[in-house]
Every structure is written in C-alpha cells, then in structure tokens.
Design goal:
Its EC number is 3.1.-.-. With 295 residues, this protein is α+β, with helices and mostly antiparallel strands. It has 3 domains: 90 residues, 2-Layer Sandwich (Ribosomal Protein S5, domain 2); 51 residues, no CATH class; 139 residues, no CATH class. Helices cover 62% and strands 16% of the residues. The strands form 2 sheets. The chain has a 4-stranded mixed sheet with strand order 1-2-4-3. Strands 5-6 form a two-stranded antiparallel ribbon. The protein is rod-shaped, with a radius of gyration of 38 Å. The N and C termini lie close together (7 Å).
C-alpha cells in the first residue's frame, strides 16, 4: 500500500553542470504531472512524464528540475553584417547630402545596438549526455518519492486495520444481541395483536400473527451483517495482497460498508444496537478519510 502524498529529491553533479530534482505528490483522483523544466530541456518533457506515470498511477505530482548549466552552454556574439552594411550605407548617404554633416561611424556605438550585435547560446557537444543524466536524476527522484509514499502507506495500513478490528468487535456484539432482539420483537408484536384482537376468531388472528412475523423477519439484519463482514474481509485482502493502485477499490468497499450499516440502522429500533451502529458509522468515516490518501 502506498500513500498518495510524499516528497522526493535527487542531486547530481558532474564537471560541467549540476542537477537538482524535487518531486511533491498530493492527493488527486487521477494521475496528473506538472514538470517544471528549463527551456533548453523541454524536449525531455515527454520522457519525464512517461517515467513518472510508469511508477506512479494516481496523485498530482509537481516536479521541479533546476540545472546549473556551467559549461554546458557557451555564449557568443553574432553580428548581423547585412544590417551593418545598411548602417554604413546610410551614414555615407547622409554625409553626401550635406556638407554640414560630419563624423564617422563609432564602433562603440554600433556594438551596443541590440539588433546589430546579438548574444546567443551555443550548446556543447556533451549536451546529449546531460539530457541522459537529467532523466536518470528524475528516475532517482521518483524512487525517493515512492520510498516515502511506501513508508506512509505502511502507517496508513496499520491505522486502517485498527479501525477494521474495532468494527469487527462491534459487529460481533451486534450479532450476539440480534437474535434475542428479534425474538423479543416477534413476541411483543404477537402479544400486542393478541390483546387488541381477542374478540376475533382464531383464523383471522393466526393470519395477522403470521403477517406480523413476516414483518419481524424483514427486520432481521443477519444478511447485512454477513455482507458487512465480507466487505471487511475483501478490504483486508486487497490491502495485503494487491499491488498499487488500490485506492479506488478501497473507496468503493467503504461505500458498500456504509450502505450496509445504514440499512441495519433503519431496520433496528433498539437503543443499544443503534448506539453500536453510530460507532460503526464513526469508524467507517475515519476509514473513508484515510482511503482518500491511498494510491
């Protein structure tokens, strides 16, 4: 079992550059990844997304990749010679139009013109190697993230099993009380009908008592208790045996547990069992909250 929340980090250094990758995961119904990648490495986004999704199936992940370029990129100045020719031509043309215009083109002025002299980055030949290192760093970061998610998942599992064990105790208590409750309910209904219909003939009274017994049987909660125990057993098996992702399956079972408990509460008119039903609902609500954190 894994938690959907976690944090991972990886630092990698080489002669020409250093890589720092961080991953933060939070709850989300589906898988969502938001990688923050430096502009010059945007071509890696698809590989990074694929790497993450192959290891994490649910949750929202924010991935931050910081690169200290070092000597990965060199900067050069590039001159637009066609534009320089235009500057020279215009200067000569201006001088020829009037004797009052004097002077020469100043190189210090020209070199400061952004459109004439541009600064560009030139990739080193080992940039491809750097890209491979980035992907490796991301993989290591995700492994670190999964390790934390697994640790938190173990704690989640312990808490969930504790809640389930408490539910089992309550169910056992309800099972112990339910038969006697059914017997008392049937006897009470028979006595009440017998008292109010004492003056009716035996045939009619037998039919009414039969219908009352049928009603009492409808109030029987044995089926709901059996299904509730089955859901708990299935929940436990999934946690113990199945690999991730299991969060959606567990969430569905919690809904089924809640449905059975609600049915029990609607059938029973006994204060003691109603109080036990309230306790069951409380544990189910706690389980529901925890399951929202399971991948």
């Amino acid at each position: 079992m894994r938690s959907m929340t976690g944090y991972g980090r990886c630092n990698f250094k080489q002669n020409h550059f250093s890589i720092n990758v961080e991953a933060k995961a939070v709850n989300h119904r589906f898988f969502e990844c938001n990688p923050r990648i430096p502009q010059m490495f945007l071509s890696l986004e698809e590989d990074i997304q694929s790497c993450l999704h192959s290891k994490v199936k649910r949750g929202k992940i924010d991935l931050f990749i910081h690169i200290e370029k070092g000597e990965l990129v060199k900067q050069r100045l590039v001159i637009d010679y066609d534009l320089l020719s235009e500057y020279t031509r215009i200067a000569e043309e201006l001088k020829s139009t009037s004797q009052e215009i004097d002077g020469v083109l100043d190189i210090n002025t020209l070199i400061l013109q952004d459109q004439l002299v541009k600064r560009v980055e030139v990739e080193r030949e080992d940039l491809e190697e750097a890209k491979k290192m980035i992907v490796s760093a991301v993989e290591a970061c995700v492994d670190s993230l999964i390790e934390m998610k697994s640790r938190e998942g173990k704690q989640l599992k312990l808490d969930l099993f504790n809640q389930l064990n408490q539910m089992k105790k309550i169910i056992l208590e309800i099972e112990t009380k339910a038969p006697e409750l059914n017997r008392l309910l049937q006897q009470k209904m028979q006595d009440r009908i017998a008292q109010s219909l004492a003056d009716l003939n035996e045939s009619i009274m037998d039919r009414i008592i039969t219908e009352a017994c049928i009603y009492a049987e409808k109030a029987d909660i044995n089926e709901e208790l059996v299904r509730l125990q089955s859901h708990i057993a299935h929940f436990t098996d999934i946690c113990d045996q199945e690999d991730y992702p299991i969060g959606r399956k567990l969430d569905f079972l919690v809904q089924e547990m809640n449905r059975e408990v609600n049915t029990i509460g609607s059938k029973i008119n006994d204060a003691t069992i109603r109080q036990l039903v309230v306790s069951l609902k409380s544990y189910i609500e706690k389980i529901k909250e925890q399951v929202q954190n399971v991948e």
